[in-house]
Specification:
This is ParA family protein. InterPro entries: AAA_dom (IPR025669), DNA_Partitioning_ATPase (IPR050678), P-loop_NTPase (IPR027417). It comes from Gemmata palustris. This protein is an alpha/beta fold and about 290 residues long. It has one domain: Rossmann fold (3-Layer(aba) Sandwich), CATH 3.40.50. About 35% of the residues lie in helices and about 15% in strands. The chain contains eleven helices and ten strands. The strands form two sheets. The protein has an eight-stranded mixed beta sheet, sandwiched between helices. The chain has a two-stranded antiparallel ribbon with strand order 9-10. β3 and β4 form a beta hairpin. Bound molecules: adenosine-5'-diphosphate and magnesium ion. Adenosine-5'-diphosphate binds next to α1 and α9.
Length: about 290
């Protein structure tokens, strides 16, 4: 299982769009995927067709009332599940203030969730197979802050993906973000690794976008071999182009694959999923189509 926190303390850079559509692309590729919506604004939940109205079980119940993940998780598509958020999560910061170990509540809930379900007679036990998740990918969509919710994601994750919009000052704030991953790695989650930066809202025609990508690659290259979680971080080859379909699909409660499967947005997130899966685009060799691992 790969557990990925999608973070950037800046809003509007493509975190939710990337979490939802990458998750959908991985699910389409046959992987079992769970999205955890860590943002009180619940955009990922809405995007996946779940409207948190304060009545459905949510991540709030997991973090504040220790409800098991299995009682909160819901199927939102083939191979795709969701732990919804809720506006109540906005209060979690305050409500968890006095709790020892508040940064690792989600990690503990996930550890319990992964334990094999006890062998119960078929007629007994909670809902049919509901307690054996066995996901290949868990993607956590974080809100625009580095507070207790994002810390819970970083404590539970093995990997960090950082969506970034290539505009002036795009790299501003990246050091603070990376320092936070270093702090979490040192204090609560030694296996935390920054896998890479996903460039979103990309406009290849602008010089600025290309300059930001060059600066970013150079910046990351300077940390190669250092004892930091981003020592091997890369800029993903796949750039997510600006595409109106990506902006439209959330209001229909669908991923771009359900809304506009032939759009450039769908193509870009498929390419990103292939990169994440470790496959490159199909290479045509004679009449055969094969995929080569990178
Ligand atoms: P974040 O979660 O980081 O705040 P979002 O993923 O919600 O950012 O994206 C911010 C806004 O930009 C949303 O309205 C979203 O629909 C839109 N958006 C994101 N990526 C793209 C893209 N590649 N092309 C067009 N619009 C996009
Ligand atoms: Mg968001």
């Amino acid at each position: 299982m790969r557990t990925i926190a999608v973070i950037n303390q800046k809003g509007g850079v493509g975190k939710t769009t990337t979490t939802v559509n990458l998750a959908a692309a991985l699910a389409l590729a046959g992987k079992r995927v769970c999205v955890i919506d860590m943002d009180p604004q619940a955009h990922a939940s809405t995007h996946l067709g779940v409207e948190p109205d304060g009545t459905i079980p949510s991540l709030y119940d997991v973090l504040v009332s220790n409800k098991p993940l299995v009682e909160v998780r819901r199927a939102v598509g083939d191979n795709l599940s969701l732990i919804p958020s809720d506006i109540n999560l906005a209060a979690a910061e305050v409500e968890l203030a006095g709790i020892v170990g508040r940064e690792v509540i989600l990690r503990e809930a996930m550890a319990v969730d992964e334990r094999p379900a006890p062998m119960l007679p078929l007629s007994e036990g909670p809902g049919a197979g509901g307690s054996s998740p066995a996901f290949d990918y868990v993607l956590m969509d974080c809100g625009p802050s580095l507070g207790v919710l994002t810390l819970n994601a970083l404590a539970a994750a093995d990997e960090v993906f950082i969506p970034l919009q290539p505009h002036f000052l795009a790299l501003h704030g990246l050091s603070k973000l990376l320092e936070t991953t270093a702090l979490v790695a040192r204090r609560i989650n030694p296996k935390l690794t920054v896998t890479g930066v996903v460039v979103c809202l990309y406009d290849a025609a602008t010089k600025l976008a290309q300059e930001v990508v060059t600066d970013l690659s150079a910046f990351l290259a300077r940390s190669r071999g250092a004892n930091v979680p981003w020592a091997n971080a890369k800029v993903f080859e796949t750039k997510i182009r600006r595409n109106i379909k990506l902006a439209e699909c959330p209001s229909f409660g669908k991923s771009v694959f359900g809304y506009a499967p032939k759009s450039s947005g769908a193509a870009d997130y498929t390419a990103l999923a292939n990169e994440v899966l470790g496959v490159t685009a199909p290479v045509v060799v004679g009449p055969l189509k094969i995929s080569v691992p990178v």
